[in-house]
Amino acid sequence: ATEADLDKLAAACDPATFGMNQLDVLDESYRKAGKLDKTDFALNLDIVGNGLLQAVHSALFDWEDNPRGIKAELYKLNVYGPGSFFKAHKDTPRGDDMFGSLVLNFPIKHEGGALVLRHDGREVIHDASAAAYTDPNQVSWVAFYSDVEHEVLPVQSGYRITLTYN
């Protein structure tokens, strides 16, 4: 995508909200990003057929613990442009059977915007911008449980574009 294409995508987005006490809240001092709900864009991506959902299942579970598998429901597309961020938080479950999130990061060059995950005193940093420079044809992904605190560090330049699944 060209920079002009990405600018148009960002302009088409609504301000991103976040869940708090079962409500959707808009507060750009806590989260500044754009979003498109799943009904507002078309996607031709089969995460079951391409093996991604199986890889996520294998990363999160032993087969003995969960032999039935998992499903992922597309939630939204997020666009983090320069100055965008999301302060540390835990996800608000969007359904009774939601146990975590899957985030796909498009391989678009940008600076900043790392996803920091924290749980039980451990911290893991997923830097999709580094992955975009390493292999511009490879979508990176991260999956985590709902009780994992996470934040998106500020984007310095370019766009961090993600698909989020529950």
TrEMBL record:
Protein name as catalogued: Fe2OG dioxygenase domain-containing protein
Database matches in Gene3D superfamilies: q2cbj1_9rhob like domain
Stored InterPro entries: Oxoglu/Fe-dep_dioxygenase_dom, Pro_4_hyd_alph_FE2OG_OXY
Alphabetized PROSITE patterns for the sequence: FE2OG_OXY (PS51471)
Domain Fe2OG dioxygenase: 71-166
Source taxon at top rank: Eukaryota
Species per Swiss-Prot/TrEMBL record: Exidia glandulosa HHB12029
